Amino acid sequence: MQKLQMVDLRRQYLKIKPQIDDAIQSVIDSTMFIGGSEVAKLSEELAAYIGVKHAIPCANGTDALQIALMALGLKPGDEVITPSFTYIATVEVVALLGLKPVFVDVTTDSFTMDPECVRKAITPNTKAIIPVHLYGQSADMEALLAISEEYNIPLIEDNAQAIGGNYTFSDGKTVKTGSMGRISCTSFFPSKNLGCYGDGGALFTNDDALAEQIKMIANHGQKVRYYHEMVGCNSRLDAIQAAILRIKLPLLDGYCDARRMAADYYDNAFKNNPKITTPFRAPYARHVFHQYTLKLTGVDRDEVPKQLAARDIPSMIYYPVPCHKQNMLKAYGTANDNLPVTDRLQDCVISLPIHTELTEEELSYITKNFLEIIG
Ligand SMILES: *Cc1c(COP(=O)(O)O)cnc(C)c1O
Model confidence over 293-328: pLDDT tens digits? Predict the structure, then answer.
């Protein structure tokens, strides 16, 4: 058995090496390193895949979120509702733009924004809501979209962890995550479900005017070269990354299936252990398992990663400190926010290796040892 990793990008690459190598070489041969046809074609293919009118690639997922907030015209002091139980990027961009993060709790089973908490957090200053499809499962979008409509506050989907996932409305209509918000954002960081070989990200919207605004912001605030209408930023996806993503996008559904199969194996192995709560599969979502995250009870959680490591099994705590308690945000005084579920989850979650290349032998080794350690 090879050395286990949280994500095995090398084995994934070896299966598509000739196509990837050719794609990279042809970008080099063309010397169109920035922009050009690879980026343009990827935009079209991404928009078609997600089922929206516009996909605008950018430099990374964090930039995508920042550009989304800028495109909505948010002003310093405006409030943005986000979960605290997320990767810091969701919140960092809010602070970077001088906006005020307002944290809401997640539900204990879904790990995603609790719509009732969102409703209670709304004030006249609320100007955006950012649901995060954490670990690969959609937030409860029907409830969140209803709140968004009722109060006329735009939703920005943070789809960095759930590209390839679905959401099914109560009328049976099924759509892709990343197609429901006023704007949605994703990341092509190498370990994400659709990863490139460096940094990358994209924004998605059905709104023509917003798409223009997003393109302008990502390109130094210009529509016409050297005529700058507003302060923007420089956020581009490299053509080499676009070429790689064009090879991998048609494989994304298969990658998600492979992750789901690994998750099924884990679920089945752990289902009878009362100390382990396997991930909740929401009836409204197709979970694409960016992470496989368990909750442990009656176990010294902090000891488990050490014992796993002693058996050469990697694991991670996503995330050990929720955003509202990060020093970064001290100035906002959020450390004592009343987020009981978030506070509890921080102490009981653990994520096991999950990726597209896990074999039955590896899954069997991981589950057997995990169960021995948990007892
Ligand atoms: C990865 C991630 C981001 C940021 O993406 P980068 O490409 O790393 O900047 C934002 N939000 C969430 C939830 C993420 O997991």
Answer: 999 999 999 999 999 999 999 999 999 999 999 999
Instruction: State pLDDT tens for residues 31-42.
Output: 999 999 999 999
Contact (Cβ atoms closer than 8 angstroms) between residue 288 and residue 178:
no
Structure tokens at 70: 């800028």
Residue nearest to atom 3 of ligand 1 (CA): 61
d(C-alpha 230, C-alpha 226), whole Å: 12
Distance CA 209, CA 204 (A): 12
Q: 57 in ligand 1 pocket by Cβ < 6 Å?
A: no
- Is residue 81 a contact partner of residue 102, using CB atoms and an 8 Å limit? yes
Name residue, tokens 């989850």.
Answer: 345
- pLDDT beyond 90 at 351: yes
Degrees, nearest 5: CA angle 269-354-141: 95
291 lines ligand 1 (CB under 6 A): no
Residue 243 near residue 38, CB atoms below 8 Å: yes
Ordered by where they begin, the domains of the chain are 9-250 (3.40.640.10), 252-374 (3.90.1150.10)
Tell me the C-alpha distance between 37 and 42, whole Å: 8
195 in contact with ligand 1, CB cutoff 6 A: no
